[in-house]
Structure formats: structure tokens, C-alpha cells
Design a protein that fits this description.
The chain is mainly α. The chain is built from seven helices and no strands. Helix 2 runs antiparallel to helix 3, helix 3 packs antiparallel against helix 5 and helix 5 crosses helix 7. The chain starts with a helix and ends with a helix.
């Protein structure tokens, strides 16, 4: 989605995200993975470009944390309440609040790793792949 946003426009990237999100819901058997894509990993590469324009680092960090946690908690809720897949959540509930906090900290670490990796992916595309694609023109 970042490449679509960089090459065409963010609105086209969001439109592509919506189309692939609907396809993910209808085509894949793993609805939880489709939900993660729809709620976080699909739109975030485009949304990140707007978040990274925020000037104070603390505000940027707060917005990223808010988005990560809102998306992940929404995914937890939808998976448990609407899809009825409660095994993972029953295990978290049985192990207590400390375990739930540890899981959320690990999820936030994964999300920040994803955020950091997106910078590298876009950089590789712009500096290495795009020049090779346009070399013959």
C-alpha cells in the first residue's frame, strides 16, 4: 500500500486496501488473519505517512500507540464476540492480568517493529527497485 501511495496517491492506496480487505474476508479461511489485515496491517502503511508528518515526537508516538492498541483490541473483541473464537482469550483470562499486560506489551513491540520496517521497505523501493524499473525508459 505504501508503494501505491507513493506512486499514485493515498486515496488510491486506501481504495486498493478496501478491495483487498473485502477479498481477504471472502477468500481466506483464516478470518482472524483477515481481520488483522483489515484492522491494522492493511491501512497502516498509508496512514503512517500522515502520522509521520506530526512534528512533536511525543504526539507521533501517542498516535501510533493509540492506533495500534485500538486496532488490536478491536480485533480481539470481534474475534471473540462476533466470530466466537474464544480459546486464546479464555487462556489469557485464566492466566491473569499480568499475562494480558505482557501480551499487550509484546504486541506493541511487534507493531513498532512493523512501523520501523515500513520505513526500510519504502526506502529500498525508492532507492533500489524503482530506478531499475525505470532504467529502460
Amino acid at each position: 500500500m505504501m508503494i501505491m501511495s507513493a506512486e499514485i496517491s493515498p486515496s488510491w492506496a486506501y481504495l486498493t486496501f478496501m478491495a483487498t480487505g473485502l477479498l481477504a474476508l471472502f477468500v481466506t479461511f483464516d478470518k482472524e488473519a483477515a481481520l488483522l489485515y483489515i484492522l491494522l496491517f492493511g491501512h497502516y502503511p498509508v496512514t503512517k505517512q500522515f502520522i509521520d508528518r506530526l512534528k512533536p515526537f511525543a504526539v507521533r508516538l501517542f498516535v501510533k500507540l493509540f492506533i495500534f492498541n485500538a486496532c488490536i483490541l478491536s480485533e480481539f473483541y470481534i474475534t471473540a464476540e462476533i466470530l466466537g473464537m474464544t480459546e486464546f482469550y479464555d487462556e489469557i483470562y485464566a492466566k491473569g492480568k499480568t499475562y494480558a499486560l505482557l501480551i499487550m506489551l509484546l504486541i506493541n513491540f511487534v507493531c513498532f517493529t512493523y512501523d520501523f520496517s515500513l520505513n526500510g521497505v519504502l526506502d529500498i523501493y525508492l532507492k533500489r527497485i524503482k530506478p531499475k524499473l525505470l532504467a529502460g525508459r
